[in-house]
Amino acid sequence: MRLLLDTCSLLWALQTPAKLGAKARRALQSEENSIHVSPVSFWEISLKFALGKLQIEGASPEDMPDFVAREGWHLLEFQAPTVASFHGLPSVPGHKDPFDRLLIWTAIRENLIFVSKDGALAEYEALGLKTCK
User: Who has the most CB within 10 Å: 22, 105, 113, 128?
Assistant: First the structure.
């Protein structure tokens, strides 16, 4: 499976894996799966860190790409067609976070399984989103 971590799942996988669901932990540990991280997550981490809404124990936002590389995970590149077509993702009531929405759209467009504990993903699944919790 090709997995895309949402930002919370990325942080949990690196710092507190017990916060991930059992299925997600197994998927991340399986050598048969490829784990992908979007630059969108680094942007979100950096922004929330700057606003004082996020603390990273023993690290800074600049360390995140190195942590991902050390895990052997793949860094996705921004794909212009994916970003340009983002307007095609319908709005879902109560789910307006632009970072999450761009990650969801990336997962749909790139045929990646989205690793997230977000409870508001069911409506996106009808649009083709595959999830792992």
Answer: 105
